[in-house]
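STRUCTURE REQUEST FORM
Protein name: Phosphoribosyl-AMP cyclohydrolase
Source organism: Belnapia mucosa
Requested output: structure tokens
Priority: standard
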Amino acid sequence: MTSSPKSPEPEAGRPLLDSIRFDLRGLVPAIAQQHDTGKVLMLAWMNREAVEETLATGRACYFSRSRNRLWRKGETSGQVQRLVDIRLDCDGDALLLLVDQTGVACHTGRRSCFYFAPRDGGLAELTQPEVAPEALYGQ
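Status: completed
Returned output:
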């Protein structure tokens, strides 16, 4: 029997932060993956402050390029990501967040943002929304 995953400790984040190769805009791509199923949920961007906050709070925080500010996953939808573990790739220029996703991860109401695939000469939607976006964002 395996023990339940444990979130990384914030003070352990210094070596991680010092090892990340942020791009010229100060960003690094971050893939969110459901920790127990391996399902890839989404891709977002993080700056140093977002990584620090994620480590300190145990909740995924990203940098929104469109809003030019921190974006705390679930701040409007309630669909939060609890951090289970964080990994840095071999080149130091991409992060993998192993998370426990509450509800759906995609703003379209799907569990994963990766639902398009080439089929029969076009793009097919492989999954349907589990919840209406209007219900998530009160639109």
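Reviewer notes: Helices lie at 13-19, 48-57, 133-137. The CA atoms of residues 110 and 129 lie 4 Å apart.
Form closed.
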